Amino acid sequence: MKIEKHGLVIGATALVLTAVAVTGAGLHLPKGVAFFKDSPKELIDEVWQNVDRLYVDGTFNQKDWRAIRKQYLQKSYKNKEEVYKAVRLMLKNLNDPYTRFMDPKEFRDLQVETSGQLIGVGIQLSQNEKTKKLEVIAPIEDTSASKAGILSRDIIIKIDEKSTVGMDVNQAVQLIRGKEGTSVKLTVQRDGRQVIEFNLLRQQIEIHPVEAKYRPKELGGIGYIRLKQFSANAATEMGTAIQKLESQGATGYVLDLRSNPGGLLYGATDIARMWLDDGKIVSTVNRKGTGEVWSANHTAITKKPLVVLVDGGSASASEILSGALQDNKRAQLVGSKTFGKGLVQSVRPLIEGAGMAVTIAKYYTPSGKDINHAGIKPDVEVKLTKAQIQALVKDRTKVATAADPQYAKALQTLQVAIAQNGSSAQKK
Fold it and tell me: For 89-127, what is each residue's pLDDT tens digit?
């Protein structure tokens, strides 16, 4: 089975399918698009055909997949919404949350999220738990919002004169985003009294999945790298970060994969090769029992000691990367057990701009572990209490500091590894 390179997705859940992985994105839609209005059942059949050809489980969850096709094609549908509902109900028979249908808007949103770029004004929003008001977490540097002077803790009370009372974050985001080059007016309240209006230009914003810092005061100077997601530009940014930290003289590294929901399979393998010089990275197996094996190719940027931080939010691509580094004894994992998502999806365009993700294979770590549902157990387990989690969520500046118990343990583990590495080098 041939699968296009950018068609392999391993996002953690249906809501966080963070991958570039749109097979054929940007190409002409199938011929059926012109006939959808006259033949709405064509979409149902197209989804059925994709599952029939590609789905990882040849028993289709012990269901009669041909009878299901007949059932849904015999029904009458008045409009698109009824067709979309029918498709979703049909896929529920598989009992697989990762095989899902996306209407045209959802499919566009996925492409925006996973491309590593979006159109907006550059603010991160949240809804205050107590007041339910829309609060600016922070403006993104060098965007319309930051240049205009929007500040953290500003409360958005109107979007283009529409009150935000009762509005959730998703609704606000849909109103703020729009066509590049157009403007949106945000009315904010500052310090509980001052009301300010901002006319902000929507522009393309690059999403940077990698944050890297050289920390000279820790263990003689280490590199800290936070990887937020495996989006299209993750591997490029990771390579740049490692090379810069190497030039700064990093003695070792902490790679933070906590709460990283996953993304592109090839993002995981490309990044693994930056840390791992040889050895298997991951293997996939489809329903026919065949698949592919990805291995390191002697292109590691550094061989210095490495500790990887993981938790229950580290999923899919994060688990491939951390599993490869652990099984090859390249790094020690510190934190708590990972999510446990060992399935690969292909994201495919459908007629009329819709799309779907279909589970096509299982993946295994180098030692042959099937981590689906089981997750990966860290070498050094550090579970956070509810109070510790709340403290870190409330004040993100404490993450990856001495106030972060998992990071503190990672530093201790890295210190031992650096000492052992130095001892080995002297013996040679």
Answer: 999 999 898 899 988 887 887 776 666 567 889 887 877
Average pLDDT over residues 223-246: 94
Helices and strands in the chain: count of H runs, count of E runs: 11, 20
Per annotation, catalytic residue among 96, 154, 327, 404? 327
- Whole-prediction pTM value? 0.76
Among this protein's residues, is 341 annotated catalytic?
yes
Per the domain annotation, does 62 fall within a domain? yes
Does the annotation mark 96 as catalytic?
A: no
> Do 80 and 100 have their domain in common?
yes
Same domain, 168 and 66: no
Confidence of residue 228 (pLDDT cuts 50, 70, 90): confident
Percent of the chain topping pLDDT 70: 87
Whether residues 270 and 351 fall in one domain: yes
> Which residues are CB-neighbours of 386 under 8 A, at least 6 positions away?
none
- What angle (nearest 5°) sits at the alpha carbon of residue 127, between those of residues 124 and 128? 120
Q: Which of 228, 304, 337, 341 is catalytic?
A: 341
Query: Which residues touch 236 (CB under 8 Å, ≥6 apart)?
Result: none
Q: Is 327 a catalytic residue?
A: yes
Torsional sign, CA 137, 142, 145, 148: positive
Catalytic residue among 231, 316, 322, 346: 316
Sign of CA dihedral 51, 14, 376, 243: positive
Domain count across the chain: 2
